[in-house]
Amino acid sequence: MSQIHLRAEPGDVAEYVLLPGDPGRARRIAETYLEDARLYTEHRQLLGFTGTYQGVRVSVQTTGMGCPSAAIVAEELARLGARTLIRVGTLGGATPRVQPADLVVATAAVPNDGTTRQMLGGAPYAPAASFEVVEAAVASARELGVPHHAGLIMTEDAFYASTPEHARLWASRGVLGFEMEASAVFLVAAQHGLRAGCLTACSNDIGDPQLVPDEVLAQGVDRMVRVALDAVVRLAGAEAH
Ligand SMILES: O=P(O)(O)O[C@H]1O[C@H](CO)[C@@H](O)[C@H]1O
Ligand SMILES: O=c1cc[nH]c(=O)[nH]1
Questions:
Q1: What's the short name of a Pfam family annotated to this entry (predicted)?
Q2: Complex ipTM value
Q3: Structure pTM?
Q4: What is the CATH number of the domain that holds 146?
């Protein structure tokens, strides 16, 4: 049955789904990396494509920005038969350890957002990536020679409320950077028994309006996408054995 927001039928979506926030990134990934990519939904600009990468069927589904939209998309993907959700996003660095365009593989996301708070009724919970996805992403990054960090990130709602002081405080608790969707993707995936992961490329320092130069960020995003797709191939290979 077609979903309210993702106008797709079961069978349109692959078991492995990459989740960029930006519809332009979804189209670029589909056009650059997937063979026989087909657009299966474009309602509300939540562009979704399915094709194959090194013989593995993969979808790329836009989440839009923020947890409310990401939670809807993850829920509807689960209903459409997705089994592994991997966010491919950008993130604001919280610490000088994370440099412009660096790859950050999230192990978990501090849920500083209203969506997961409502879903959990305020109960304490630690939205986390699936171990197999983190393991595959780190193995892929190593094999492809992509420098990376693996660790805690924070998901929040208010992009312009983040300040350098806030970043410093959370960096002192181990947070590498901030983004806006991972906690919801991790929680919805857990509720449906799906695997989830989140890879990000650093687009700026928190509180710094200056983005990484376009071409530098584009290279970081490209490295992140190649690592995510290689991780999908790795996960699919492991499942086949
Ligand atoms: O680049 P994407 O994947 O959209 O991710 C980040 O960028 C947006 C904010 O600029 C938020 O969606 C945040 O999570
Ligand atoms: O949420 C985000 C994403 C990228 N950069 C930020 O500063 N915040």
A1: PNP_UDP_1
A2: 0.98
A3: 0.98
A4: 3.40.50.1580
